[in-house]
Design goal:
Elements lengths: L1 H36 L4 H8 L3 H8 L7 H10 L4 H9 L13 E3 L6 E4 L8 E8 L4 E4 L7 E9 L1 E6 L2 E6 L3 E3 L6 E4 L6 E9 L2
Antiparallel strand pairs: 1-2, 2-3, 3-10, 4-9, 5-8, 5-10, 6-7, 6-9
Helix pairs in contact: 1-3, 1-5
């Protein structure tokens, strides 16, 4: 029985990794589409995003998994929210999105898990569920917030959100509206995972 359980775990892990690899490939392809639709070279996107040309090339080809911070920089360069960029990469149009069909992406650097909850529709908003592991921190550049308004609602655990020089210590049930665009950091300084929802009102 233990052997059977171990085999099932390996199969599940392999399937999950395959799904994540496919998401990375779709994200890379979407970044290339966004760049080429604007007539930008790799060098121009690198200059606008402060991400190296070599790294963008690897991401577009699906040879490297982007981190959450890199995706924030790239989406900001396109004048898109990170949620909009990823929704364009991951989702089909429709008003109903079952849980098993909600795209899940994991930051390879921190283990930050992002689940896109809301359907892709004409509504100018995205609802995202984030699980931030204990001890993890994810910085985001001001450019990632320049084209949207955003609410953060903590569902479980504790979140420390650094908004420029302002430090917000948030517990379950707390909700914060972000101010003007500034460099931010999501930090989990506790000993267990933090789960929070992000509601993004997008302009693109």
């Amino acid at each position: 029985m233990d052997f059977q359980i171990a085999i099932l775990r390996v199969v599940y892990y392999s399937k999950t990794m395959s799904q994540l690899d496919e998401i990375d490939r779709r994200i890379g392809a979407r970044i290339r589409i966004e760049r080429e639709s604007r007539g930008w070279s790799l060098t121009e996107l690198a200059e606008r995003s402060a991400v190296s040309r070599a790294m963008i090339h690897k991401i577009e080809r699906g040879e490297s998994s982007p981190t959450a911070t890199l995706l924030g920089k790239l989406s900001g360069a396109f004048s898109l929210s990170m949620s909009t960029l990823m929704a364009r990469a991951e989702m089909q149009q429709g008003r109903f999105l079952k849980k098993e069909d909600q795209p899940v992406w994991v930051d390879p650097q921190t283990g930050y898990e992002r689940r896109h909850v809301s359907p892709k529709s004409d509504l100018p908003l995205d609802l995202v569920r984030i699980e931030l592991p204990a001890g993890a921190d994810v910085p985001m550049p001001a450019s990632a917030y320049a084209f949207m308004r955003q609410l953060i609602w903590v569902l479980e655990g504790q979140l420390t959100f650094l908004e420029g020089d302002v430090r917000h210590r948030m517990s379950a049930g707390d909700c914060l509206e972000l101010g003007p665009p500034t460099d931010c950091v999501f930090k989990n300084e506790s000993g267990r995972s933090c789960i929070y929802a992000v509601l993004v009102l997008r302009n693109a």
